Every structure is written in structure tokens, then in C-alpha cells.
Amino acid sequence: MSVISIGVNHKTAPVEIREKLSFSDNSLPEALAKLLDQPVVLGCVIISTCNRTEIYAHVTDAESGIETIRSFLQHKSGVEAAMIKKYTYAFTQHNTARHLFRVAAGLDSMLLGETQILGQVRTAYQLAQKHNATDKVINTLFKHAITVGKRARSETGIDQHAVSISYAAVELAKQIFHDLTGRSVLVIGAGKMSELTAKHLVANGVSGVIVSNRSYDRAECLARQFGGRAVKFNELHHYLEAADIVISCTAATHYVVRASEVRGVLAEKTGKKIMMIDIAVPRDIDPAVGKLPGIKLYDIDDLQNVVDSNLMERKRAAIMAETIIEEVVEEFARWQGVQYVIPTITTLKKHGEEIKQRELARALGRLGQISEHDRKVIGSMANTIVNQLLHTPVTRLKEYALTEQGPVFQEALEKLFRLEDLGAPDKRTAAVQAARADEHDQQSELAVRASGQH
Predict the structure, then answer these.
(1) Which residues does the UniProt record annotate as the domain Glutamyl-tRNA reductase N-terminal (predicted)?
(2) Cα–Cα distance list, 213 to 161, 182, 221, 236, 387 (Å)
(3) Residues 6 or more apart from 403 whose CB is under 8 A from it?
């Protein structure tokens, strides 16, 4: 048995392939059901976002599972099998856990450390749970992944450093004003960059939004998004006094904010502090404005320097996150390894017990009338022999179960003792038995706790 992952992302496949392999929210329940119909699949989760499609599955055999899921993707998408194999990546066992944990921590994202992916991982898992598509192994894998995603962010601060131009502007504004609550912004230009910057500022407490654009209709449209107001482009300098923050990003070939206009505002508002962000190329704001008292002027290069510096911080945080991930990969591997060998160990011990009881009955029958003391001595000796013989293979199997070679040693032990001929469960049944055993252990533990509380 193995956990596997097959998928594509922005690094491995072009958008025309990714879009064919993606799943809509409405199609996911049916897709999960079809995967579970495959005998090799014991449990699964599908993560489908704009940048990745990945299927995580607990399977009875890794090679067959990968082939089955790739075939499933081929039939779903209509993409040729050769192309599916070319563009999809596949992970097994510990590498599956490591990959999922890196995804949840934002280390595999287009934007290093982005936060949205953790919610997408959680949502995908919850949907699979809702439709009874997961089993104990998948549940444990994804619970570990969500924990890792949270730890990576809280312990390293990887998502605390702005790595987009629009959010870098917000970071600089916080440095100047500390608290943006109740501040006002004048947005000059109604393009995408202006909209994104205004959006981030509003999300961080800015309440007053004034928009000015050559097209008054577009200014009104953008202002409406933030509950603000639009002003005519040729009158925008009259509103500088109302702004704490000015964002300018137009296609003008000349300055739209001049030093003389800003100087007039400062003369009327003694002690006025204004932060100006010029994202345009060519620049919209006269550089001389930045020399005026009370004015903090940043251009696109200043913002890019912030982004570059923050990206380095995220890369340093990513190194710390990788350490957390390896720690949890090892923890999951230990848990997983023991789960897989429990049915084999149970069958081996049962086999030893049957041999002991059979041979003990035969020996005692031949001895005839002997004392109860002698019976106990002989029984104890038989127990000791069986236990000592089985101790080393059982202990070693548990040790090897924590390595990638665990399944190989498990299969070797089953063949050496011919356990498959002695009622050893098949892999699907073994997985169910392990789940039931785990559930029984949990219930027993809860009962012990409950009894101790009364």
C-alpha cells in the first residue's frame, strides 16, 4: 500500500493542458466517486486551482495506482496518454507527503509563501470527506498538511513580507502612518494597478477613496467598488488636501501632479503629511514634489526594491519552513509505516500461536498424567520459544516500516512465512482492518480517560 500524488502545475504544464485537466466545483463529487470505483484506490482528494490540479490517493499498489489515475485523467480530459505522462508528475510515499506539505506551506506556489493555497487544500480535503472519499491514511496525511501550512506561516512569517508592487505600497504606507484606519486615498488613473493598490489599502483600514481619471465613467466605476467618489481629471489637484495617500498610475506622457500644486496644499494645511506613490512609467508625479516638507514620494523603483528585499526575506523563511516540513514528513512516515505492517504482524503472531497450541496439545497428550506445575512449565517454555523466535522479525519489520523499503520487507516476511496461504488479508482488506483497529484503540483510550474522570 502507498500514498501517491499525480498532478500538473504552473511549472510543469502550459495553461492549455492545465485547463483541460482542471475540475469544476460541480464535477468534483462525481470525479471522486469514479476514482473510488477503481479497486486500487482506497481513498482520495482532488485539489484543483487555476495553477494546479493534483490527485492524492491511498492505493494498494503505487505503480498500478499511478497508471490508473493517469488513465482516469486521460479519459476525463481527452488529452493523449503520452501527453498526460509528459506533463504530469508523480510522487509516492514520503515524497507525496513532502510535496503536499510544501504545497500547503506555499513553497510550491507561483508567489512564494502565498496564503490562499492553504485554504484551497483545506477546502479540497473537506469536500472529499463530505463525499466519503477519504480513509484513515488520507485523513491523517491532510491533517498533517494543514498543520504544517499553519506552522510554516506562524513560525517563519513567510507570508508577512509583501512581494507584489501593489501590496508593497501598503507596507510603506503602514511604515509612515502606522495605522491606516480612517485614512483617505486619492487614486489617479483607473487601471488595474491603481485598483489593486486601492483594494489593498481599503482592506487595511483606509476608508475615504477619491478616484480621478481622464474617463470620468471609469473613475465612477472604480470609485463605486470602494464606496468612494469620482472627481474630474482637470480638478484633481483641488482634492490633494483631502488625501493622506496619493496613488498615481496613468498613461500620461507628462507630470499630472506638479510641485506648485502640492506646495499650495501644504501652505493651506500646515503640518499636512502626504504619502505619494507613483507607479507610472513615465512618471506621473514631478520628482521635485518629494523634496517638499511633509511629502514622502515613492516611484516604481522604490516599490520594486521593497519587493526584492521582501522576496529575500521569504526565501530565508522558506528555508526554515523546509525544516518544519521534514520534521512532519518523518512523523507521518513513522505513523504510516506502523499502520501498514499491523495486519502482517497480527497474522504472523496468530500463526505462531496456532503452532504453539497445536504442538503443546500433542506433547501434553503424549506425556499422560503430569502435575499442573509441570503443565505450566511446559506451557511457559512454549510461549517463550514462540515469542523469542518472532521477536526479531516483528521488531525489524517495524523498523523497516519507517523506511522506503518497508513494503519490500513486509512482502518478504509474508512470503517467508507463507502468510498469504494462512489467511493474511489482501491489501484492501488489510487497510480496512487497520482502520478498525485504530478506531478500536481510540475508543478504548477514550473509555480509559472517561473512567479516570469519574
Answers:
(1) 6-156
(2) 31, 23, 11, 9, 85
(3) 337
Go through the domains of the chain in sequence order and give each one's CATH number.
2-161+313-330 (3.30.460.30), 165-293 (3.40.50.720), 333-452 (no CATH)
C-alpha cell at 311: 522576496
pLDDT score, position 418: 86
Q: Supply the pTM of this predicted model.
A: 0.66
pLDDT for 439 equals 45
* C-alpha cell, 172: 510603506
List active site positions: 50
In the annotated binding site for NADP(+), the residues are 189-194
Over the stretch 390-408, which tens digit does the pLDDT of each residue have?
999 988 888 887 776 777 8
pLDDT at 441: 42
Give the relative orientation of helices 300-367 and 93-104 as an angle to the nearest 10 degrees. Answer: 150
Q: How far is CA 71 from the centre of its chain?
A: 25
Which residue bears the cell 491533517? 143
Q: Which residues are annotated as a binding site for substrate?
A: 49-52, 109, 114-116, 120
CB–CB of 7/89 below 8 Å?
yes
What is the CB-side half-sphere exposure of residue 195 using CA atoms within 13 A? 11
Task: Outline where 275-371 has alpha helix (H).
Answer: 300-367
Q: Is 12 exposed, middle or buried, given 0-12, 13-18 or 19+ CB atoms closer than 10 A?
A: middle
pLDDT recorded at residue 216: 94
Question: What residues have CB less than 8 Å from 361, skipping those under 6 apart?
Answer: none
Cell reading at 238: 483641488
Which amino acid is it at 420? E
Question: Which residues, at least 6 apart from 13, have a Cβ–Cβ distance to it below 8 Å?
Answer: 21, 87, 88
Q: Are strands 52-59 and 184-188 parallel, antiparallel or unpaired?
A: unpaired
Low-confidence ranges of the chain (pLDDT < 50): 436-454
DSSP calls for 187-226? EES-SHHHHHHHHHHHHTT--EEEEEESSHHHHHHHHHHT
